[in-house]
Amino acid sequence: MSTPSAVTPLRVALLGGGVVGSSVARMLVEGADDLAARVGVPLELVGIAVRRAGRDRSDLRVDPELITTDAAELVTRADIVVEVIGGIEPARSLLLSAMEHGASVVTANKALLAEDGPALYDAAHKNGVDIYFEAAVAGAIPILRPIRESLAGDEVSKVLGIVNGTTNYVLDKMDSTGMSLHEAVEQAQALGYAEADPTADVEGFDAAAKAAILASLAFHSRVSIADVYREGITHVTAGDIAAAAAMNHVVKLLAICERTTDENGVTGLSVRVHPAMIPRTHPLASVREAYNAVFVEADAAGELMFYGKGAGGDPTASAVLGDVVAVARHRVGGGRGPGESSYADLPTLPMGAARTRYHIALDVEDRPGVLAQVATVFAEHGVSIEAVRQHVIDDESGLQQQRASLIVVTHTATDAALRATVEQLDGLDTVNEVTSVMRVEGS
Ligand code: NDP
Ligand code: HSE
C-alpha cells in the first residue's frame, strides 16, 4: 500500500539476513533519513527473506513482521531487490524473477555471477533494470565501478589482485611468524576469517570467481569461473616462504587477469589464480592480515591500487548500500546504469600461454657439469635464466654425498615452457629433488 506522503518511497526487499544481510538491514533502517536525502525519496524496507523460520532475529533490529521465508513472493513486490543469500539456487531464480517483475537488483553473489553472470545481465537488459554487484569482489573496496565506469575510456592491460582475505591472512602469518600453513589456517578459523570448511578459500575457488568477474569487466569479454586457471595455497610450504624471503619477496595468492598473445599470435586473456612470489617493494606486498587490494595497470592511467577490507558484515554492506543508492537514483531520475559490455569478446587462453617467471629450487649433486646440465634443460625449452644461486647442503646422512641447493630464477617465458623445463629437470639423474617451484610476478 502506498504511503499518504507526497513522495512514493522505493520498496527494498532484502533476500538474506545473515552476516551481510543483517548489516544491510541495520544500515538501511538507521541511515534512513540520510539515504532518503541522497536518493531523493525514502527507501522502505518491505521484507527480509530468510531460510529458517522461527529463529531469533532480534539482531536484524526490524519489525518481526518483515521477516519471511517466502522469498519468491517478496521479490514480486519490490522496486529494488538485494540478494545476500549466496550460492547458485535459489539466488539465480529469485534474481531473474525480481527483474521480470521490474525490480532493479543488487547482489554480493560472486559465485553466481562467475558461473552465470550473462543470464543475469541479459535479464537486466531485457527488463530495462539495473544489476549492480560491487560487493561481489573485494567486499568494501570500490573496484568494480572504477573498472566499469571510471576506466571505461582507457585500456586496462592487467589486473593483479589479493581478493581473498583468508588466504592473505594465512600467507602473511606464515611469512611474519614462520608458522605452518596448518597452524595459520587454524588461527584464521579461530578469528572467524576462515570457514569451518576452508576449501573455497584455501583452494582458490573464491578468488577464481572474483577473477572471472574482474576479467569480464576489465576486458569487455565474457569470462566464467570455468575459464579461470586455479591453484590454491595448500601446497605452499614454510620452505617456499623462506625461499621468497631470501630473494626479498613475499608469497601472495594472486588473482591475475591480463591481455596476452599466444605463440600462434592469437590475442586473448590469461585469467588465473595461484600463489606467486612478489617483490617486497611491490605495493601488493604491503597488504597484510586479511586485507584485500587490487592493482590495476591501464595504458593512460598507469598504475592504480585499491585497498581495504574484503569481507565482514559492515564493510560488505557498505558496498551493497552504495549500489542500492545508485540503482535507486536511477529509478528516481530515470535511466539505467551501464549494462554488460562484452563487445571485445576476447577468448580465454589456456594456462600454458600465460607469460610468467619461475623460481625453482633444486636439490642437486654437487659435482662438475651439473650446473651446465641444468642450464641446458632451460635452454632446450627456450627459457632464459635471470639468476642462479647455489649453496652446499650439509651432509647429515653420513654417506659423504656432495649435494647443493640450486636456486634458479627465470626471465619471462610461457607457462608451458616453464612446466616442461621443470618436468625434464625432475627426470635428471643429478637432480635429487625439485624442492620448490613458484611463479614470480610483479616485477
Ligand atoms: P550467511 O550464510 O551469513 O547468510 C545467508 C542468509 O541467507 C541467511 O540469513 C539465510 O537464512 C539466508 N538464506 C539461505 N538460503 C535461503 C533461501 N533459500 N531463502 C531465503 N533465505 C535464504 O551469508 P553471508 O551474509 O556471509 O553472505 C551472503 C552473500 O554475500 C554471499 O553471496 C557471499 O558470497 C557474499 N559476501 C559475503 C561476504 C562476507 O564477508 N560474509 C563478503 C563479500 C561477499 P537463515 O538465516 O535462515 O540461515
Ligand atoms: N571468504 C572471503 C575471504 C570473503 O576470505 O576473503 C568473502 O568473499
Task: Write structural notes for this entry.
The protein is an alpha/beta fold. The protein has helices at residues 19-30, 32-39, 71-74, 91-100, 110-127, 144-150, 165-177, 181-190, 199-202, 205-219, 238-246, 313-333, 370-380, 415-426, and strands spanning 10-15, 43-49, 67-68, 80-83, 104-107, 131-132, 156-162, 229-230, 249-261, 267-279, 291-298, 302-309, 355-365, 385-393, 403-410, 413-414, 431-440. Strands 7, 8, 9, 10, 11, 12, 13, 14, 15, 16 and 17 form an eleven-stranded mixed beta sheet that branches. Strands 3-2-1-4-5-6 form a six-stranded parallel beta sheet, sandwiched between helices. Helix 4 packs parallel to helix 5 (110-127) and helix 7 packs across helix 8. The longest helix is centred in the last third of the chain and has 21 residues, at 313-333. L-homoserine (HSE) is lined by residues 164-166, 193, 201, 206, 310-311.
CATH architecture of the largest domain: 2-Layer Sandwich
Quantity of strands, as a count:
17
Uncertain residue ranges = none
Percent of residues in helices: 25-40%
What brief labels describe this structure?
443 residues, alpha/beta, Rossmann fold, Dihydrodipicolinate Reductase, domain 2, Alpha-Beta Plaits, 3 domains, eleven-stranded mixed β-sheet, six-stranded parallel β-sheet, 14 helices, 17 strands, elongated, binds NADPH dihydro-nicotinamide-adenine-dinucleotide phosphate, binds L-homoserine
